[in-house]
Amino acid sequence: MIDYSLYLVTSSDNLPPGATLESTVREAVRAGVKIVQLREKNLPTKLLLERARALREICQPPVKLIINDRVDVAIVSGADGVHLGQDDMPLAKAQEIGCGDSIFGISVNTVEEAVAAARAGATYLGVGTCWPTGTKSIPDHKIIGPRGVKAIRDELDRLGLSIPLVVIGGINSSNLLRTLYGCTSNQIYTDRNAESPIGVAVVSAIMSAPNPFLATSKLLQMIQEFKYWLRTLEEPLAHTDVVLDMELKVYMTQFFEKSSTPLIHHITNTVVQNDCANLTLAYGCSPIMSSNLSEMEDLVKLKDGCLVLNLGTFDNNQIRAMKLAGMHANLIGKPVIFDPVGVGASLERRKQANNILNAVQMTVIKGNQAEIAALARFHSSGATSCGVDSNGEVEDPDELVRKMARQELCIVVMTGKTDWISDGSCVFRLDNGVSQLSNITGSGCMTGTSIGCFTSITQSGYDKDSHSGLLLIAKDIQETFGGTLLATILGISTLNVAAEQITREEKGKSKVGPSTLEGLPELVHNNINLSGVS
């Protein structure tokens, strides 16, 4: 069986001073790499063959040696296989020339290319480009991100085409876990044992390393941590009203009796900054509103808390800040809440939302019906964009949020007259709230803040020096009654229940507003209207 876990692609152009291709590959293999591709585009045939024979001596079984493009060099050097691009020799011709047990890898960038290659008999697929890379010039539309890779994987699963996938393009220790988790198959929601880890191909992360043995060891350790996370996922339990009610009350008590003051870092729109800051204070948390690129890493690492991203009013600097802060939050296990405000209103908003979702693994995505429908590509669902508000009703809202949660591997909230929440396995319906909320500018953004405040205690005390924090968040999302799910339900319900209470006290005078929503979160204890659990 071929181990694609960590797939090294060579590049002499990336070697540091004093290093050779052979010495670097030797150290990577010594550290545990089990498959190496010789990729030297500019070498003449004679030198390429010499390199291939040298690497063949280093890559002894069970280590596999693959040659990029050149079937002839692969055969003469005794390599184990060849990797072909879309513009290289057709797979059928390569199979005709090569040995019967040769490995044939194919580069793919789209679902159509992947399906065609799998059906043609490829041994594995090299899927990408995942991230921007310095090893070659890649057009923007060819950079598909983890979401693009996952779309390819899910379609292959749907068609029953079982084939190993190796993700390539810009992968390093800072985005490795984001890549692996972001490419996780939907199968984990139906069969915990069905998921097989995807392979990752790296170039400069090893070839440019001053110590390739240590660089390889670090990458392999992270891959093993991800595999362990997959193996230890528990089967989802049945959600019962009694247990859920008890868990919600326990979490509510923990939140309001917290000894710390979590920092809620907002990168949000200018319209709601003051209201969201005051709401954060009312919850006993500390707000900060900053999109200053130079302080993103420091703010994320400052203390326990949460990162709230809001697409309401954005510019290029704010988008960069969201991605930078989000990536640092992923590394240390800090929850990230994303509100894709008005994402269906313009092509630019959809483009930037896609960029953010590729760069950052979200913990919770919260949007109205039009926004969630746009993200989930349910364009024919009946909901249309109306500025940054929602207009129309989607069909099958429970299936919409479930599909979106599985697509993004996070908790998804769809707000409206009825609020819908899904963790990808189950769907929850919340029927609290008053109609006046839809007439208050920023009420939806404040809901994102409320979720962020409640979520801020889920990872309290986590080791901020670790780069495996994303797996802690992922485990919590996949668990039955995990803190993230409870926090999301409470974050929404607290505002809605408070609005109901205030409306009753004001005898229907419709005085619900940001200032009156801040003081009554404890009412949620006895007034959550949670139903429609499935």
Automatic annotation (TrEMBL):
<keyword id="KW-0547">Nucleotide-binding</keyword>
<comment type="pathway">
    <text>Cofactor biosynthesis; thiamine diphosphate biosynthesis; 4-methyl-5-(2-phosphoethyl)-thiazole from 5-(2-hydroxyethyl)-4-methylthiazole: step 1/1.</text>
</comment>
<feature type="domain" description="Thiamine phosphate synthase/TenI">
    <location>
        <begin position="6"/>
        <end position="179"/>
    </location>
</feature>
<keyword id="KW-0808">Transferase</keyword>
<keyword id="KW-0418">Kinase</keyword>
<dbReference type="GO" id="GO:0009228">
    <property type="term" value="P:thiamine biosynthetic process"/>
</dbReference>
<dbReference type="GO" id="GO:0004417">
    <property type="term" value="F:hydroxyethylthiazole kinase activity"/>
</dbReference>
<dbReference type="Pfam" id="PF02581">
    <property type="entry name" value="TMP-TENI"/>
</dbReference>
<dbReference type="InterPro" id="IPR034291">
    <property type="entry name" value="TMP_synthase"/>
</dbReference>
<keyword id="KW-0479">Metal-binding</keyword>
<dbReference type="GO" id="GO:0005524">
    <property type="term" value="F:ATP binding"/>
</dbReference>
<dbReference type="InterPro" id="IPR029056">
    <property type="entry name" value="Ribokinase-like"/>
</dbReference>
<dbReference type="InterPro" id="IPR000417">
    <property type="entry name" value="Hyethyz_kinase"/>
</dbReference>
<dbReference type="GO" id="GO:0000287">
    <property type="term" value="F:magnesium ion binding"/>
</dbReference>
<keyword id="KW-0784">Thiamine biosynthesis</keyword>
<dbReference type="GO" id="GO:0005737">
    <property type="term" value="C:cytoplasm"/>
</dbReference>
<protein>
    <recommendedName>
        <fullName>Thiamine phosphate synthase/TenI domain-containing protein</fullName>
    </recommendedName>
</protein>
<dbReference type="Pfam" id="PF02110">
    <property type="entry name" value="HK"/>
</dbReference>
<comment type="pathway">
    <text>Cofactor biosynthesis; thiamine diphosphate biosynthesis; thiamine phosphate from 4-amino-2-methyl-5-diphosphomethylpyrimidine and 4-methyl-5-(2-phosphoethyl)-thiazole: step 1/1.</text>
</comment>
<dbReference type="InterPro" id="IPR036206">
    <property type="entry name" value="ThiamineP_synth_sf"/>
</dbReference>
<keyword id="KW-0067">ATP-binding</keyword>
<dbReference type="GO" id="GO:0009229">
    <property type="term" value="P:thiamine diphosphate biosynthetic process"/>
</dbReference>
<dbReference type="GO" id="GO:0004789">
    <property type="term" value="F:thiamine-phosphate diphosphorylase activity"/>
</dbReference>
<dbReference type="InterPro" id="IPR022998">
    <property type="entry name" value="ThiamineP_synth_TenI"/>
</dbReference>
<keyword id="KW-0460">Magnesium</keyword>
<dbReference type="InterPro" id="IPR013785">
    <property type="entry name" value="Aldolase_TIM"/>
</dbReference>
